[in-house]
């Protein structure tokens, strides 16, 4: 991966880091740590060759080192294996194979002096196949192509078994899946299927190193959870995978590297303060690690030497190496969900949020529509109201969204703000026991009135009452 480049690969795991980081921050758990403070390795030398500004693959040789640069800029037309002496100076004895690689990431060497270049980088997860280039000492190139059984994935580590079988270790957040060819290598370049032969979970550590942020996105301890390189010892008895910050070493049982990694317990050697460490190899005697880092902020690519931590038995899962970090709550989340599960969780949160926005908008729209309908209904009733009819009025002008009751009839007294045409003085006296009024007296017990007398037994209308005559209504039994 190019230094500082915000790739889609980084965007994918940055989202997972963000979600997991929020959960971890909520419970305020400390990050896992080693029993002892990590000690920096011995700096051997700085690499001055511009072709190795993005140092990605490294092997130790009898005369020094052989290295390759990351060719992911798309301008590489050859596979260049660059020879360095013990002081990291270029010897000029480079081997250039005529092939156009896509993204070389790691380097291995076999017992015959052949170099194997892992052309496996895939930051976008879009390559239909990956390639392994065999470069002989006389610059002859054979290319082998492979396809994953599931999805394309970024891969930056190559482990060559003693029998010549390549093991590819992927670069994924918190896990590295191991793949091997299903059959013999085909030198004709035909694509061969890969099969998954194991996986290893990578826990977070407190070892400092690797990129701290990319385009303003803080990475936290994520650099400690990505596998960026690998190597097998010259005698084939040990294998190591590195992250940006630490090296994980296993003892190899028999010659099966993948099974030893899958079933074994690694010893962890911190590799602190490397700006962007992506290369690792064994010394020719197999006793030490030599690591390489790409160019950093104000620093040149360099090589470091480390003494490996004591390796555990390949199949002993009961022993806990003191260098192994404790499992944190964040580890549990990522181990349980996996990177894809975390990304699905992020997507689910977004979808739920969108659904809530849609539902909320729908509720508000319906509430406003109901309110508008209520106003329209009131206006319609006002227009249709006949003289002498008083329509019910409503205590609560609310539309129902805030808890008020729509269409709640109350008393017939006039409220302020309503037109007097509809809410005139009370027209009382038109029922039993009604108020005296010149226009009343039309039912039982009604007040006397010249205009009354319209029911059974009523007096004759229009006759004036004598002063000595008791007040009477114009109903049954009334006087006239």
From TrEMBL:
Transmembrane segments: 342-365
Signal peptide: 1-35
Region (Disordered) residue spans: 374-480
Keyword presence, Membrane: yes
Gene3D superfamilies listed in its UniProt record: TolB, C-terminal domain
Domain of life where this protein originates: Bacteria
Skewed-composition ranges (Basic and acidic residues): 376-398
Keywords recorded for this protein, A-Z: Membrane, Signal, Transmembrane, Transmembrane helix
Protein name according to UniProt: Uncharacterized protein
Organism of origin: Stackebrandtia nassauensis (strain DSM 44728 / CIP 108903 / NRRL B-16338 / NBRC 102104 / LLR-40K-21)
Upper classification of the organism: Bacteria, Bacillati, Actinomycetota, Actinomycetes, Glycomycetales
């Amino acid at each position: 991966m190019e230094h500082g480049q915000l790739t889609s690969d980084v965007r994918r795991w940055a989202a997972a880091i963000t979600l997991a980081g929020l959960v971890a921050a909520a419970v305020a758990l400390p990050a896992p740590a080693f029993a002892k403070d990590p000690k920096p390795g011995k700096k051997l030398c700085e690499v001055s060759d511009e072709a190795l500004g993005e140092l990605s693959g490294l092997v130790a040789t009898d005369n020094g080192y052989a290295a390759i640069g990351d060719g992911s800029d798309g301008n590489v037309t050859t596979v260049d294996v660059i020879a360095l002496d013990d002081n990291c100076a270029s010897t000029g004895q480079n081997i250039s194979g005529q092939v156009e690689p896509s993204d070389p990431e790691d380097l291995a060497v076999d017992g015959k002096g052949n170099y194997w270049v892992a052309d496996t980088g895939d930051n976008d997860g879009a390559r239909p196949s990956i390639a392994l280039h065999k470069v002989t000492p006389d610059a002859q190139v054979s290319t082998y192509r492979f396809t994953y059984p599931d999805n394309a994935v970024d891969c930056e580590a190559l482990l060559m078994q003693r029998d010549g079988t390549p093991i590819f270790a992927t670069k994924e957040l918190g896990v590295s899946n191991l793949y091997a060819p299903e059959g013999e290598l085909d030198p004709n370049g035909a694509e061969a299927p890969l099969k998954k032969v194991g996986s290893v979970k990578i826990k977070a550590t407190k070892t400092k190193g690797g990129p701290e942020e990319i385009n303003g996105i803080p990475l936290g301890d994520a650099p400690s959870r990505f596998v960026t390189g690998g190597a097998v010892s010259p005698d084939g008895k040990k294998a190591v995978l590195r992250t940006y910050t630490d090296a994980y070493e296993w003892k190899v049982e028999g010659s099966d590297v993948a099974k030893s990694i899958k079933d074994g317990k690694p010893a962890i050697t911190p590799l602190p303060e490397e700006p962007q460490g992506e290369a690792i190899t064994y010394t020719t005697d197999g006793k030490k690690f030599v690591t390489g880092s790409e160019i950093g902020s104000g620093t040149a690519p360099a090589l470091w030497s480390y003494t490996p931590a004591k390796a555990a038995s390949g199949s002993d899962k009961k022993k806990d190496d003191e260098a192994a970090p404790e499992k944190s709550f964040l580890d549990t989340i990522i181990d349980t969900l996996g990177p894809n599960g975390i990304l699905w969780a992020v997507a689910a949160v977004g979808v739920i949020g969108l659904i809530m926005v849609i539902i909320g908008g729908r509720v508000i729209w319906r509430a406003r529509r109901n309110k508008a309908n209520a106003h329209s209904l009131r206006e319609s009733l006002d227009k249709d109201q006949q003289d002498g009819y008083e329509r019910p009025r409503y205590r609560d002008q609310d539309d129902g969204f805030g808890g008020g009751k729509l269409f709640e009839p109350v008393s017939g007294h006039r409220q302020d703000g309503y037109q007097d045409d509809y809410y005139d003085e009370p027209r009382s006296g038109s029922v039993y026991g009604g108020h005296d009024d010149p226009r009343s007296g039309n039912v039982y017990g009604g007040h006397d009135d010249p205009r009354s007398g319209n029911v059974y037994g009523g007096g004759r209308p229009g006759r004036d009452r004598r002063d000595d005559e008791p007040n009477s209504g114009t109903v049954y039994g009334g006087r006239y």
